[in-house]
Write a structure and sequence with these properties.
By secondary structure, this protein is mostly helical. Helix content is 62%, strand content 0%. The chain starts with a helix and ends with a helix.
Length: 173
Amino acid sequence: ELLQPALAPVLDLVAHLSRQIHSFDKLLAKLASEHYPEVQRLQQIDGVGPVISIAFVLAVEDPKRFSSSRQIGSWLGLCPRSHSSGDSSPQLRISKAGDGRLRRLLTQGAQRILGPFGPDCDLRRFGLQIAARGGKSAKKRATIAVARKLAVLMHHLWRTGGDYEPLHLANRR
């Protein structure tokens, strides 16, 4: 009760900002569905919402830009750098080339997939396998690997116009 007079304006401000963010999210989803119909196909993937899908579409611009969907991981800087000489081939960090904001959004989508509320899907199983290997930064490596696969999957869905199957590899076996 003693803190109520001091905290009431702050709580009101947080509530006001939350309402504004919610209204802007609705506006973004409406604009995305009207002007970019391909974002609906990308949003089939759990962890990919209007912000990630429209950022992906606007950054890539043309899905035919890449001859293979696998090239998009390197374009976004989600692949490890290489500096091999002789017998040594050290494991380096990602190159961080390309659009940093889109890379950050894809990483957030990957964290959602790998998190406690992520659905059972091939991406989650792949990331959990990498994280289970252990090591000092296994969770970070798994997140980046899932973000890279997420970008490849999004590009593939956009390019082919197919539907997303969460357990495609599991059903194929």
